[in-house]
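Exercise 7. Predict the joint structure of the components listed below.
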Amino acid sequence: MGNKNVLIIGGGTAGLSAAVELVNLDIHVDLVEKSDFLGGHAIGYTCKATRNTCVKCGACMVEEKLKDTILHPKIKIWTGSRVQEVSKNGRFTAKIHCKPKYIDPHKCTNCRICFDKCPVDGAILHGFSKNNIPFYAINEELCLYLKDKSCGLCRDECPETAINLDPKATEYIKEADAVLVAAGFHPFNPEDKPYGYHRFQNVITSLDLERMLKQVGRVKRPSDATIPERIAFIQCVGSRDSKLNHLWCSKVCCGSALRMARLLKERQPDIDISFFYIDVQTFGKDFEQFYKDVQEEVRMIRAIPGDIYETDRQKLKINFLDNNTHETLEEIFDLVVLSIGITPGKDNGEIAELLHLKLADSGFFKSGAEEASAPNTGIFSAGTISGAMSIPETIASAGKAARQIVKYFRANDS
Ligand SMILES: Cc1cc2nc3c(=O)[nH]c(=O)nc-3n(C[C@H](O)[C@H](O)[C@H](O)COP(=O)(O)OP(=O)(O)OC[C@H]3O[C@@H](n4cnc5c(N)ncnc54)[C@H](O)[C@@H]3O)c2cc1C
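Solution:
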């Protein structure tokens, strides 16, 4: 297989896992990731081990795949890049558009001077993993040099001269024997629900909490950096919602939120946690026992709240219907965490058009024996591009796609 090459679109858990599987089978890989960093959503997740015991959340598995990917000489990584055109005449020919590379990853030593000196919050981005390459990236929307050339501190202060603020975008033509689509999912945007996200500072999403725990290890209220006394988790935000026509269960949210709730109880035991849910969906090995244990520490409330209102000191009032008495109850919390679901990726339509595929009615890619993995197209899919799945399921789907690709090569070589 040493002469074969696969083009992977998307460098999240699915893309990284497939890349590692394929190079282990002696197949070359071009891994095209549109953002500046590899790892997708899950690279921002925290390890949720409690009492020094792994709770099988899967976060560390992504870190391992990232490390294996960046170390492998047969994986060509294209971050900040998009596939713009694809044609097939025996092999695939793809045009890859790469946005300007402001920071040379070969020169950057992760000294962090650019990050510390930059006068604009968020203008220099740092990836979530210690294994990122590049370590830093320039946020084109916020950088003052790119706006009006009024600053060049990062470039001037970099001891390795790794920063060039005037590079050009580039385009490359690459050939491939198969294409694997692994462009992932879009987290539901809860701004349209009556929960006050982006209106009330102390309403955050489960992804925000993941990142807060990964970066600082503890939870604080965004409004005043105080430790919340009472936190409410609200499940199924954007999933199992007929008004949105999102009838699917995102499968991973209950497990992920309960694991974070338990981690919080271990690290900040004085916090009182309530968990509003419809049904608890279990995932991962040993979840049943974990769920029994967690119910001793977290108050489980079978109800989905109505609107959320802000009260004094930016506390949050939640109304909900008591499941037993059917009375409307009202409670005040210091912080609300919305467990947002998995929805189809923003680029699904564009990628489907590029590859002449049709999406399922839900907006996800068709999977299995359907469209994207049909045996003779040479186009395969893996991960959440085809629907909600956990990290271990995503890794398994990437392994399956790699095996399908090998089968496709064997069938077409004979
Ligand atoms: C709130 C929340 C919490 C979760 N917690 C857990 C958990 O604790 N445990 C667990 O097992 N699972 C969890 N999951 C699920 C987990 O996030 C997914 O299983 C995993 O991220 C799927 O990986 P992926 O590669 O399919 O998608 P993604 O992580 O979305 O990666 C896709 C990648 O493709 C890139 N991309 C997109 N479009 C393009 C394009 N046009 N060109 C190039 N690149 C592109 C994206 O930038 C991204 O890097 C959680 C999900 C959510 C929403």
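Discussion. The longest strand covers residues 81-89.
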